[in-house]
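User: Show me an example of a complex going from sequences to structure tokens.

Assistant: Sure. Here are the input components:
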Amino acid sequence: MNIVNFTPVSAFVGGSLIGFAVFIFFIFNGRMAGVSNIASNALMQSTDRLDNFLFLFGLILGPIVYSIFNNEIVSNMTSSLVLIIIAGLLVGFGTNIGNGCTSGHGICGISRLSLRSIIATISFIITGVLTVFIFGA
Amino acid sequence: MTKLISLISGLIFGLGLTISGMVNPEKVIGFLNIFREWDPSLIFVMMGAIIIFSPLYFIFKRKSRPIIAQFFVVPSRKDLDKNLIIGASLFGIGWGLVGLCPGPAISVLSFFKTEVYIFAVCMFIGFFIGNIFLTKKS
């Protein structure tokens, strides 16, 4: 194993901002900022629908606001169309029946020391690592 | 007012994803590529977020209600069920295939690339199928 492309400072700064975003959503709106839940509820539930859509809209604005003050944002996705479709379906289905994703379980849930979220996070990291190991990077 | 907070929170979250490089699927795959060339950055993203939110959560959860909304809505389940493990595992496979999880999948819509729109549409179809699956089971 070699360590490559490691950017601990920007990762930690960005992560702290995410933690702050999760905190204000909690302290003002009383809710957990798990993106898969917010996105699926925006689609399928009438409660807080506008709130959920505005949160998603904010997520889209993030890179746009960033690019006003900074250089180009690197974002490369090299997977084939078939893989993109399969992956999208798996991410949607999996996070829905598993009640959360990297933000809901990985950040909000672990912060609350929820056993369910700790187990979920370990599970998706293991299968993610195995998938990359098998299909290559 | 909760609507303004939702927008601001989403925006800060999106900025965080951008600054940390998590809107780059290649970088996320780099984190999952532990056995070859490993980019541990994602651990620092999660640590940064947890170090900020966790103590604040435990300090403020004792308040009787949030500042604007009527009450706190926090998951209360403690049981480990099959859906949790299977769902998380399937999610991990999808995550490893292209390097996108739900947060970044929404943020990257700002780049106007066809692939990311296809991914997002499939993710929403996945949510929908998941709902049908859960309703049928119960």
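The lines above are the inputs; the final block is the predicted structure for all two components together. Strands of chain B lie at 37-38.
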